[in-house]
Amino acid sequence: MVLEVDQVLEQIGQFGPFQIRILAMFLFIFIPLTYQTLLMVFVAYEPPWMCTTNSSACLLSNSTGREIYSTSTQPIELYHRRCKLNRTDWKFADPELYEGPVHTIVTQFDLVCDNSFHAWLANSMLFFGWALGAIILGMIADKYGRRSVLFPSAACVIAITFSMSFAQASWVVIALRFFSGFFLGGSILTMFVLAAELVGPAKRALSSTMVWFYFTLALMVLGLQAYFIKDWKLLCIISTVPFVFIFIFWKFIPESVRWLLVVGRKDQAREILEQVAKVNKKEMPKEDLRVPVVKHNRGFLELFGTPRLALLTLLQCYAWLVNGLVYYAVSMSAGDFGGSIYLNFVLTSIVEFPANILVIDNCNRFGRKHTVVWYTVVGAISCLVVSFIPSGTDNIGYIAGRVAAGTLGKLCITTSFNSLYVFSAELFPTMIRNSGMGLLSVISRVGAALAPFVVQLTRINAILPFALMSGLTFLAALACWFLPETRGKPTLEVMGDDDPQHLEQGKH
C-alpha cells in the first residue's frame, strides 16, 4: 500500500509544532522582502517646494514667502510653475512646513519637471523585474528545488536594496530596483508554495492566510519605520541589514517534499516527513510514498486551446491586471489623500487584516464569484468618491473623507484580489492550473508596474487617478460576473469546449 503526502500529513500532524516553527521563520524572511513592494512610497517621495527668499521671479504679489506647492495644489499650474523658473529661484520646502520624508531620491537627484519620470520608473521597474523573475526563477525552482531558489533570491534582494543606498545616479536606482524585483519574484512565490505544501489539506487555507497576514504586518512596520527615518539611504539600510540573520534558517527549512518525490528523491522526502513526525510527536506510517505522475502539456498555449477557455482566461487576465494596478496605486497614493502620509499608509495597510478574514468567511458563505464581484464594485465606488472630494485643502472634513473612502477602497480591493487567488485556482482545470496561475501572477505584476504612472496623473488633474481606477474596476467586476461559480463544485481535471461549467453567462 502506498500513501499520498496529504494522507501522511494527516497522520503525522497537519499543523503541529514543526509547521508552526517553519511559518514563524517565514515571518522574519517575509518582512524585508515585503518592504520592497512599497518602499518607494517613501524613497521616491516628492516633497513640496517653495520659493527661495527674496526671489522676485518666484514670489507672487500676495506671497508671504512661506507658501508650499505640491501635486495636490490647486490650481495645478501653481505646482508646475517652478519648471519655468531658474533652479536658484525655488527649493524643496523646509521640513517643518510639511509632514513627510525629507531626503529622497527626488531631492538628491533633483527628479523634477522633465526628470520626474525617473522616480516613477524606479517604482515600476520592481514589478517588471518581478514578472520576469517569477517566470525564470519559477522554472529554476522546478528543476533545482524551492529551497535552492528561496535563500539565494532573498540574499540578492537584501544585498541589492542595501547597495541602492550608495547609488550616485538615478539610473543606478532604476536598474537596482529591476534586479531586486527579479529576485523578489522567486523568493515570495517560493515561500507561498512551501507554506502550502508543508501543512495538511485541512490547514492549507490557514497557512496561506497567515502568509498574507505577514505581508500586511510588514507594510505596517515599514510605515512606522519611515515615520522615524526621513532619509532614504538610512531607510534602505535599516530595511535590510537587521535581517541578515534569516540565513541561519537555511538549516531548518526543508525542501518541498512533493518536489523531491517528483524528481525521484523518495528517500530524502521520507526523511523530511520522519522529521515532521518526530517534532510533532507522532508516529510515521510504514507505508511507501506515492510518487506523483507529472503530465506534460503545452504550457500557456493550453490556456487558449478552445474559444471558451480562451475567453475564460482573458476575463481573468483583465481582472488580475486591474486588481494589481488598483491595489498598489491606492497604497502609493497615501501622500495624496491629505493629512499624514505615514498615518494614511498604515491605515491602508492595517485594513488588510480584516480583508484576509473576509476572504475566508465570504468565499465560503456567498461563493467565490459574488465575493469578488461585489467587493470589486464597492472598491470602484470608493475610488470614485475619492476622486470627487477636493484635495490640496486643510479642510479636516475633506481630508477625513478622502482617507476614509481610500481606506475602504483598499479594504475592498484587497478582499477582491485575495479572493481571486482562490477563485482562479478553482476555475482552471488541474492539467493547466500551474500555467494559468503563473500567467495571472505575471499579469498582476504588469498592473502593479503601471500603478505609479496612474498615480502621477494627478499632475494633470487631481480627479484623474482615482476616476480612472474606478472605471477600470467597474469593468473588472463586469468581467468577473461572466465567470462561473466554483463553490461546492468539483475541480475539473480537463475542460472541453462544450463543458457547461466552462463559461456561464452570469447565471449565478
UniProtKB/TrEMBL annotation:
Residues 58-488 form the Major facilitator superfamily (MFS) profile domain. PROSITE patterns: MFS (PS50850), SUGAR_TRANSPORT_1 (PS00216), SUGAR_TRANSPORT_2 (PS00217). It is found in: Membrane. The chain crosses the membrane at residues 22-45, 117-137, 149-172, 178-199, 211-228, 234-253, 309-329, 341-360, 372-391, 403-424, 436-457, 463-483. Its main location: membrane. It comes from the Eukaryota. One of its GO terms (cellular component) is membrane. It is a multi-pass membrane protein. One of its GO terms (molecular function) is transmembrane transporter activity. CDD domains: MFS_SLC22. Keywords: Membrane, Transmembrane, Transmembrane helix. This is Major facilitator superfamily (MFS) profile domain-containing protein. It comes from Nematostella vectensis.
